[in-house]
Amino acid sequence: MPMDWILGLAGGLLIGTGGAVYLLFNGRIMGASGIIGGLVDGSGRDTAAERISFLTAVFLLPLLLTPVFGRVDTHLTSNVLVIAIAGLLVGVGTRFANGCTSGHGVCGISRLSLRGIVATVFYILAGGLTVAIFREILGVI
Amino acid sequence: MRNLYAFLAGGLFGTGLYVSGMTDTAKVQGWLDVFGAWDPTLAFVMGGAMIPMAIAWLIAERAKAPVAGGSFPAKPAPKLGRNLILGSTLFGMGWGLVGLCPGPAIASLSYNGLGGVIFVIAMGAGMLATPALRSRLDRAVPAE
Fold first, then answer.
1. Within an 8 Å CB–CB cutoff, is residue A140 touching chain B?
2. Where are the beta strands (DSSP E) in A1-141?
3. Out of A32, A36, A89, whose CB is closest to B94?
């Protein structure tokens, strides 16, 4: 098994353990878009402190790990316009759908939620089509 | 204590995203690129994440309440509306365009350069605009 897959599995186990802690200790679903979105639009004002604690750690741990294990080359496009459009789509889309890869994907599918499964099918299909069109056909990303 | 538990959960999430390579947009776009050089790593990440999470749901079914009090989130009704389908489709398009979703966007903020910052700002703007967009759409095309 290639090293990338092993690291993927190990990282996945850590992600899922984080979700388990958030559920069993705080009684919350670990969905990144919901945690951020509630802060941005003010709908999660009552639970702002735990949202900020969560997000601070999400930001901080990779920052602390970088000097130890090395910098990740993120291969992010340098096209600022594409980045801005993608950011807007991700922001609007995840709030309309009320979830993203972590909430609908990891947390939803693992409890066999129909909404989580259908959301995941749609965002993977849309993502696959987008890459097929913009990379394989048009060659712009 | 809630904040400490949230910090612990976020730390595990951030570490997992870093270790799994999910902050590398090439790996995410590689997973979506079924007609090109397909990269299956994301499937291992998702599969790995679902194992502890599925166990946690089983424990939650049997436990009375979360450790910090309150109650466990009720399972949503299996209702598929316009917002879920439309939202997931828009999200998937943005995800495919650059290979970032909300969690990895935050996790990679310290080493993703200016582009990573622009993405998070644009994502925040989209989130901020959503309630107004949703009510406008509701007036034009009722959701259910």
1. no
2. none
3. A89
pTM (two decimals): 0.96
Q: What is the DSSP letter of B68?
A: T
CA atoms within 13 A on the CB side of B24: 19
The one-letter amino acid code at A24 reads L
Sorted by where each begins, the domain ranges of chain B are 2-140
How confident is the model over A72-117, as pLDDT tens digits? 999 999 999 999 999 999 999 999 999 999 999 999 999 999 999 9
> Does the CB of A134 have a partner CB in chain B at under 8 Å?
yes
Name the residue among A17, A86, A123 with its Cβ closest to that of B100.
Answer: A86
Q: What is the pLDDT of residue B143?
A: 64
**Do B9 and A22 count as a contact with CB atoms less than 8 A apart?**
yes
Phi-psi region of A75 (alpha: psi -120 to 50; beta: other; left: phi over 0): left
Number of other residues whose CB lies within 10 A of the CB of residue B54: 18
Could you tell me the CA-to-CA distances from A22 to A30, A44, A92, B57 in Å, in that order?
6, 16, 25, 11
pLDDT for residue B141: 83
3-state secondary structure at position A83: helix
The number of distinct structural domains making up chain A is: 1
Q: How far is residue A29's CA from residue A108's CA, in Å, rounded to a whole number?
A: 9
Burial string for B99-127 (b: 16+ CB within 10 Å, else e) reads bbbbbbbbbbbbbbeebbebbbebbbbbb
> How many alpha carbons fall within 13 Å on the CB side of residue A116?
19
- Complex ipTM value: 0.96
Q: Which residue of B has its CA nearest to A55?
A: B10
